[in-house]
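cron nightly-structures :: item 1 of 1
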Amino acid sequence: MSTAPSAYVALPSAASITTSCRQRGRRAAKTGRAPGTVHRLALAAVWLTIALSGIVFSEPAPVDALTMGLIVLLPVIGLVRTSPVLVLYLSAWLIVAAGGYMASAVAPEMQTSVIFTTVSLYLSLASVVFAGFVARRPGPHTTLILNAWTWAGMIAAAAAIIGYFSLLPGAFELFTKYGRASGTFKDPNVLGAFLVAPVLYMLHLVVSRPLHRAVIPLAAAGVMVLAVLLSFSRGAWANLAFGVLIYGYLTFVTAPGSGQRARVFLLGSAGVAMLAGLVVIAAQFDAVADLLSQRATLEQSYDSGPDGRFAGQAKALDLIAETPQGIGALTFSSKYHREEVHNVYLSILLNAGWLGGGAYWLIVAVTAGSGLRHVLRSGETRPLFLVIYAAFLATACEGVIIDSDHWRHFYLLAGMVWGLMTAPDIWVASAPMVRGRRSPGIRTRLPA
């Protein structure tokens, strides 16, 4: 007697389906391959946007039009990963903007203040979108941004050096300001600060690559360091010094073994020697030596006096105490003092009141604190995170002596820090560091 075919078909269990999907997602995330032509074109657009971010002769700059396009494009095509943490991050920036608009209502030049606040809102939205973009595929997307940033930095640094030494006709007038190298920026201070992140990325490549492949990154770092020196920006010098120290220390203490620590120490020593050599060589030029002697002091002539920077900051403190609602952006320099405060943490309290300014302070503090905690988690993206985190901390510290509230790269760095911190767990091991040693977890692999 024949047996009738069974009417039932064996179906995979829910657990097997979940495991299969998770494995496919893990493979896709680690390869960094974007599905489809649209995604590949979007990645090219991100690279182009960052690569052009170093060309800011005037504002708005070409990078702003491209960034506005990315703010809309990336979420629409699915290249942004959202999470409750990033929603909170967005909410904090919206509070900053709300405070700015409320302060603008009492500003004498309300339209000017509103425009300034709207630009701040645009930059904060870009920060959130870049955070989601990095969280989507942290390794490949972070590397893409840093590669493009390095190209932008090399172009800006080359222009700064060519202009400062008048290597081409008309280059000095185009690429310098006030006798200081500005490159493709309109402000030497911004040039110097912009170059810190790509310098740290080059140092990361030097540390993680075999020595025969470290020559080009080391040379690129030297070119950008020279441009920072020629910017004669005390803030940029401090930014670079803090960034290198923070990155070197964190790389040393998180190195997987004594051999790697020795390598970091030796390469760090060589880098310091190279920097000293660059300073000595540059100082052989009379113009460089004169400016170095003028700028290498803690206090300049415009810092002191009733109209100086320190007097302005004292006025700002009094105004902050008297006006909880703020006075509106750009009001301080037009009504109370001859220039802005030169301290972003005081400026933001004037521009956005206690509400918006407090939210800004909170964003910076939480980003710094959460980032330090994230450093202790081993994972494949930790070496890249050290680059971004060190650059962010150094730039946040520079904000004490300069108004950096419209620095595009500051918002990009903050967004990348949050993107890496909120990335899926496949990129980060759950095992924390214990007494300087990593608990059992995934093996950390330095990217080549």
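cron nightly-structures :: done
Residues 48-438 form one domain.
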